[in-house]
């Protein structure tokens, strides 16, 4: 593991040097807080670690929070803003109702304001925390580019632009392309589902009255579909019922891809990656080689973290409200 970690670090360093040389990342710098808040990453890691020890759901929730933030208006912490009497914010949009653990970011921000007032943005806190939960769960570590500013706009209506668990591959590719991300990024970032859980509502359409020809989605493993039908009957009175997105849901690994190859993807959008020639070969490669998945996931997380970086934002004093 030590040898692999060293190789991974070497690759990431080279990759980031190339990235930082490009104009698209000119605003961001891995050493952005070295002089103004050198303890920033240590404070964030400690906060995330303590929260995860008390609640094992935190890693998956923080990673999902990062995805949902960056896909709407870019990585500007708009997902953290509370609604006001005159505006319904992103966090209250339908796809984000189940996003949780905002308190972890709040706690980190409070500690950072004590250590380095008015310095570390909420957008950077989410980005660093997302990296930390992956590493803590057994996944790769990479250097996070920093220097994002926080946005002032957050609209629930814009959450309609998040990729849905019912999307086919064409829809997914189009959605990711709008953020400057390719098919490999799509498949790699979908691997974030190795952590986490979904309620029945996000996949029950695959289990009952799927189409005029099939009651159950035919791309789903038969034994697996019967298991899910028992967990998610129709009608379903248990609103907490659902399924883990892979069989090692607290460990960041490539089990997600192996399950897709076996027809055991929970979301239709996940299973679709195997059924389309544009993405199947990538799923196959990641299912066979976990170190390859780790390398590509880290690279795609850096790319996603560069989406929508703004120059004219602010550093919020409290992540839930604009200054």
UniProtKB/TrEMBL annotation:
It catalyses: 2 a phenolic donor + H2O2 = 2 a phenolic radical donor + 2 H2O. It is found in: Secreted. Substrate binds at residue 163. The active site is at residue 68. Its cofactor is heme b; Ca(2+). Binds 1 heme b (iron(II)-protoporphyrin IX) group per subunit. Binds 2 calcium ions per subunit. It is an enzyme of class 1 (oxidoreductase). InterPro entries: Haem_peroxidase (IPR002016), Haem_peroxidase_sf (IPR010255), Peroxidase_pln (IPR000823), Peroxidases_heam-ligand_BS (IPR019793), Secretory_peroxidase (IPR033905). Belongs to the peroxidase family. Classical plant (class III) peroxidase subfamily. Belongs to the peroxidase family. Ascorbate peroxidase subfamily. This is Peroxidase. It comes from Quercus lobata (Valley oak). The gene is LOC115960795.
């Amino acid at each position: 593991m030590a040898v692999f970690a060293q190789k991974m670090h070497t690759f990431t360093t080279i990759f980031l040097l190339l990235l930082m040389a490009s104009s698209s990342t000119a605003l961001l710098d891995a050493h952005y807080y070295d002089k103004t808040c050198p303890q920033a990453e240590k404070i964030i890691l400690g906060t995330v670690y303590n929260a995860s020890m008390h609640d094992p759901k935190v890693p998956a929730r923080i990673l999902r929070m990062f995805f949902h933030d960056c896909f709407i208006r870019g990585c500007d912490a708009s997902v953290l803003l509370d609604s006001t009497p005159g505006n319904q914010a992103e966090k209250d949009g339908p796809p984000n109702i189940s996003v949780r653990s905002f308190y972890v970011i709040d706690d980190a921000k409070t500690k950072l304001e004590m250590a380095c007032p008015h310095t570390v943005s909420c957008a950077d806190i989410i980005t660093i925390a997302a990296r930390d939960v992956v590493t803590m769960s057994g996944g790769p570590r990479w250097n996070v580019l920093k220097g994002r500013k926080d946005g002032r706009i957050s609209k629930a209506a814009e959450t309609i632009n998040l990729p849905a668990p019912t999307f086919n591959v064409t829809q997914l590719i189009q959605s990711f392309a709008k953020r400057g991300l390719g098919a490999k990024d799509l498949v790699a970032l979908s691997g974030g589902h190795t952590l986490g859980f979904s309620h029945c509502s996000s996949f029950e359409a695959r289990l009952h009255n799927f189409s005029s020809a099939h009651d159950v989605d035919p791309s789903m493993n038969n034994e697996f579909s019967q298991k899910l039908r028992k967990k998610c009957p129709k009608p379903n009175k248990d609103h907490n019922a659902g399924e883990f997105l892979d069989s090692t849901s607290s460990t960041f690994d490539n089990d997600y891809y192996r399950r897709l190859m076996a027809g055991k993807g929970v979301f239709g959008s996940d299973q679709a990656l195997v059924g389309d020639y544009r993405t199947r070969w990538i799923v196959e490669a990641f299912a066979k080689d976990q170190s390859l998945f780790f390398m590509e996931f880290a690279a795609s997380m850096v790319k996603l973290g560069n989406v929508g970086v703004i120059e004219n934002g602010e550093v919020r004093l409290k992540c839930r409200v604009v200054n």
